[in-house]
């Protein structure tokens, strides 16, 4: 029983991460829209297909783009880490470099990985320390060029190309997001949608057998006791909740490195050394 309770607690904490202030705003607007529709007898029967496309299409587009960026980030991080590990192996097999010097270059290689992870974790876009850690590897090769040898230097430079490409692509994913204009439009339309949806729900649920012409000619029909108002409120709230939750998931995955969402990249895995 205790295990079941603990699992429920973990699941609750895990999935409640997508609920934020936007959720409460959206739920409040859906309740307000439904109340206004009942209060002022706003009833019409709109084809919600166009409105649904106006909300769902940009939402799915931005959500899909955000997850594609996440997958690309995994690829670039793995590429950078693999190249850094290969650099360590190149130096480890060199017979011309003593143990002390090998430990120095191992430290510099690990420092690049540490600075990269620290940069991705942080909210700042200042990559001065990261650039400096990369420059130290180049400086070490130049300083010990005669000992390292031409062949090993070229192999390390080729691997550094993969490191730099992986780092720069990861930085680009962190700094540059999906189009903000589409996200702003999508959020606005999610807030506006209940005002179109509530009157249509009232018509299709409360007065499904009554024509709009009859309602216009006999407005007293609207003053009949509402029998399904709780259902109308519930459906409008549920739809708004689903839409804004998807939007929140997309917002969380926008930066896959900030550890703000359940689908963020676990950067701790990239600290493991071979």
What would your notes on this structure say?
- There is one protein chain.
- With 274 residues, this protein is an all-alpha fold.
- The protein has two domains: 18-66 and 179-271, no CATH class; 72-175, Up-down Bundle (de novo design (two linked rop proteins)).
- It is 75% helix and 0% strand.
- The longest helix has 45 residues, at 48-92.
- The two termini are 41 Å apart.
Please estimate the helix content. over 70%
Weakly predicted, low-confidence segments: none
> How many strand units?
0
Strand proportion:
under 5%
How would you classify the helix and strand content by structural class? mainly alpha
Rg, alpha carbons: 29 Å
SSE arrangement, N to C: HHHHHHHHHH
- Tally of DSSP helical segments: 10
Tell me, rounded to a whole number, the average pLDDT: 82
Largest sheet: none
Number of domains: 2
Overall morphology = elongated
- Could you give the distance between the termini? 41 Å
């Amino acid at each position: 029983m205790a295990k079941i309770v603990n699992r429920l607690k973990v699941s609750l904490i895990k999935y409640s991460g997508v609920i934020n202030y936007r959720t409460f705003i959206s739920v409040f607007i859906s309740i307000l829209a439904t109340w206004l529709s009942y209060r002022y007898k706003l009833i019409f029967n709109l084809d919600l297909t166009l409105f649904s496309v106006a909300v769902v299409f940009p939402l799915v587009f931005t959500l899909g783009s955000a997850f594609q960026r996440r997958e690309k980030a995994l690829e670039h991080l793995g590429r950078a880490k693999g190249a850094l590990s290969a650099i360590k192996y190149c130096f480890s097999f060199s017979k011309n470099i003593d143990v002390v010097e090998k430990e120095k270059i191992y430290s510099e290689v690990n420092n690049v990985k540490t600075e990269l992870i620290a940069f991705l974790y942080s909210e700042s876009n200042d990559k001065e320390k990261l650039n400096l850690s990369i420059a130290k590897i180049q400086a070490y090769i130049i300083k010990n060029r005669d000992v390292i040898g031409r062949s090993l230097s070229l192999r390390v430079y080729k691997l550094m190309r993969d490191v730099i490409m992986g780092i720069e692509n990861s930085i680009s994913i962190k700094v540059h997001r999906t189009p903000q204009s589409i996200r702003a439009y999508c959020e606005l339309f999610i807030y506006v949608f209940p005002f179109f949806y509530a009157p249509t729900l009232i018509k299709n649920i409360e007065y499904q057998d009554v024509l709009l012409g009859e309602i216009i000619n006999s407005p007293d029909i609207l003053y009949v006791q509402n029998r399904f108002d709780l259902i109308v409120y519930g459906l409008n709230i549920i739809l708004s909740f689903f839409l804004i939750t998807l939007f929140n998931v997309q917002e969380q995955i926008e930066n896959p490195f900030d550890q703000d969402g359940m689908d963020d990249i676990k950067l701790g895995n990239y600290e493991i050394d071979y």
